[in-house]
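Lecture 7 notes: from sequence to structure.
We start with the chain below.
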Amino acid sequence: MFESAFSVISAFLCLGLLGSLLVLFFQYRKQKTKMADALRRARAAKRRYDRLMQDKREAEEDGRRARDKLAEMMTDVAENELRAQRLDKENGELKDLRDSLARKNKEMATILGSMPGGFALMECGGRFSFQYVREELPRLLGYTVPEFLRESRGNALGAITEEDRTDAARRMRDAVDRGEEGFTVRYYMNCKDGGKKLLSMNARVMQDESGERMLYAFYIDVTKEQETTDLIAMQQKIVEEERENKVLLQEVLNKERRYKLKLEEALLNAEKANEAKSRFLNSMSHDIRTPLNAILGFATLARKDPSDGGKVDYALDKIELSGKHLLSLINDVLDMSKIESGAVTLVPETHSLKQIMEELDIMIRHEAEKHELKLAIEADTVHDLVAVDVLRINQILLNIGSNAIKYTQPGGSVTIRVTEDTAHEADGLAHLTFSCRDTGIGMDEEFVEHVFDAFSREQTTTISGIQGTGLGMAITKRLVEMMGGTITAQSEKGAGSEFIVSLQLPIVEEENAPDGEKNDAYDLSDVSVLLVEDNELNREIAEEFLKDAGLTVDTAEDGLVAVEKMKRAKPGDYDLILMDIQMPNMDGYEASTAIRAMEDPAIANIPIIAMTANAFSEDREKALKCGMNGHVPKPIDTERLYSTIQSVVRRIAE
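Predicted structure tokens for the same chain:
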């Protein structure tokens, strides 16, 4: 029962639920229909809205275009108004420009008409053809415009005189080519009457409307100005020439005064020189005649009693002594002449200072002992070997030492010393001081200043009878200066004198020193010699000297004979040749050269020794350069002759 009731209830409930569902379904469908209608209405409304918006946009676009068009129209209106204003302004400016141009043309015409010259317009190239010429320019030259253009052939260059045309054309073209805006050229132009005028062309380069460069030229007549300028220049030139003439005249006067002073000085010097030479000649006449008188006198005495051997030997000793003194006088004169002419050259050789002083001792000790003098010769040097012209250093020391001995009384002393300053030895030079101190008669202060002058001799020396040329100290000073040194003198009357020579000589190391020659006794017995000497007396003396030493001697009278003998000679016929230099036909130099050129080596290389009166060192050098092997000066020193022959023969043998 309950189940039936439950079923009935369930059925009513289901029917009720179904009914509700149906109601809801129909409401849904009704609502859906309403919603579909509303959606349709909404879509229709949206379409209407879209059409309205499109219409609005189109309306806005039309409005924008209308506004743009309006703005463009407003702009055109404004621009047209501005154009109208500018046109009005430009019309005003154009009118002003026309008025200004008219005024300027009028002013230009006035200026051109008032100018003293003329005006022309021409092209910048070629012959500068005229494009326009104002009548003032032709009028200056006496032409009309047509006549001027015809005579000038229509160009500026044709109007210029022939002598100025080339230069004017060059200057005008150069100015145009350099791009000068303005330039000035002066030249002469031909006149109708045959004359000419000087015109100044002031030109300016400008461009015309087409851009072509044109030359605007203004001409001014400067003929009178130039004449005035020329006159002023001539006057100035005359004034300048007068001033220069005055200056020149003053210079001439000054030169005349200077020449006069120089002439007076030269005359004074010449008078002094003549006086000195006169004293020298008087002294020389005395000094030369004294040994000549002794030579001739003792020769006469020896010939007077030849059997008295003692007198003959005494006479020969005096003759030899006088001959040596005469030779010393001649050597002094020749040395001075050579030195003053610049013909003396130094020949440095390695030599020992100690040996130089020892040789000096040997040369002057006998003379010192003869004068009863104490002679001291000392050497105190660190370096012994030096490079020096031995002949000239010996000559210097001999002159000083001999003078000291000559002018010192018996019982006095002479001290010759050489010392070295070692403070400067790093420079490779020996700084040497040669001093000669005597206790002789001395010199007064006035003469000490002139002791080194040529031909100078103090009066006391003549009074005392001491012989001399007055050249010894002058020669010594010249030689010292040639060696780069100095010489000074100190003296006190009655107390003695001291001469000091300072020299800087190159130091030679011991290992570089040449070996000394052996001093063996002379053995010349196997030596055959050809003696070439043109002077018969000299040949005879030399032949006797050579035969005395054991040599075999053949003679030749000159160089030509000697060459012929050597051409015929066989190797071994002669061991050496003694060759004089100054000979007729062929001198010694030429003969030696010819012999050295012979084909046979044994003949061509034969030793040749110059034996000549050409006794200077340069003569020795020249002899050696000509192929000779030695040199012996005349007068012949037999010891030197024998030594030289033996040295040459030994050297060739080795």
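Points to note: The mean pLDDT is 79. The radius of gyration is 65 Å.
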